[in-house]
Amino acid sequence: MPRYPTLFIDKLAITIPIEAQRREEVRQAVNESAERWMDFISLASMRNRSYEGKFKFTTPEGYVAALLLQPRNPRNNFLKLEYSPNNFGEAGRAMLGDYLRDILGAGYLEDILNARLTRLDVAFDVRRVPLKELLIVDRRGGKSSIIRGAQGGDAESYYFPFTGTNQLCVYDKLQQLIDTRKLLPQPNRRYAPWIRFEYRYRRLTRYTLADVVGRMENPFHNFEVKQFSPAQARISPERLRMLFDGCRLAGADSVLQEVSDTATRDRLALAYQTFPVPAFWLRRTSIWGGFPSAIRNALPR
Predict the structure, then answer these.
(1) 18-113 — its CATH code?
(2) Which residues of 37-53 are buried (b: 16+ CB within 10 A; e: fewer)?
């Protein structure tokens, strides 16, 4: 077992440049491969209007990759591929690689490495820590957003910032699987908490997949994470919990500004500062060190 969470690519979207002299060859290869891959490749109905040809590649487990051909804007790359490497797993990525080899030829990996990134979701999972036990702060400022569960229940997702090209999303992965019916809870069975930290990059077209590894800085350094602990002197556990939840949902500055008594405000501010940093967050540099491996493992081969 690793001593810290393993980084992986949850979603990858790339546009692949195909030289003009190869485009007709690729179109024909797509058509000719339809019979061999008829159980896995099919026409797709998508809202994307930027490409004329729209296909979906479906693994035996039901995971889908979008494959778009022939951009309406001639300045765009000829082929777009979007899928979840983590969901596909090793077998699914190998199958997708076989298909891409059929339509792009033996050098398909070189084509992919020369592709431009349009989306990259980099993630890691934390088990056995409930989301409500974590307090997350964006050091850069900006508006954040909290998505609560049914009927105003516990928060299930945090977004930093609320909107933007690049965004950290921290969410209850277990609850997401239940809500999407990918996991049907069994009676009398307890499930360990499961949180996902996911940094979502958009519009990375200045980077190719080959050179992104050496150019990306650790995005997790922009955030502060604290974990609830009742081991605070001079403050009752109940009040400490109220302080933690208030700071978690509204921010420490907003909570402390509401306290008129200076001594009380200083005591609460000290209590906030002494909430511990969880062990996994202390290892965020090591977690990000797995980025090159995560990219390699995401490739369809």
Answers:
(1) 3.30.310
(2) beebbeebeeeeeebeb
User: Is the CB of residue 26 less than 8 Å from the CB of residue 103?
Assistant: yes
Q: What is the DSSP string of 140-178?
A: T----EEEE-GGG-SEEEEEESSSSSSEEEEEEHHHHHH
Rounded to 5 degrees, φ, ψ at 40 are -125, -25
What does DSSP assign to residue 115?
Answer: P
**pTM for the predicted model, two decimal places:** 0.92
Task: Please compute, for residue 9, the number of CA atoms within 13 A of its CA located in the half-sphere on the CB side.
Answer: 28
* Token pair in block for residue 134: 């974590």
Interval 218-242: pLDDT, tens: 999 999 999 999 876 678 889 999 9
What are the sequence ranges of the domains in the chain?
A: 18-113, 121-226+281-301, 230-275
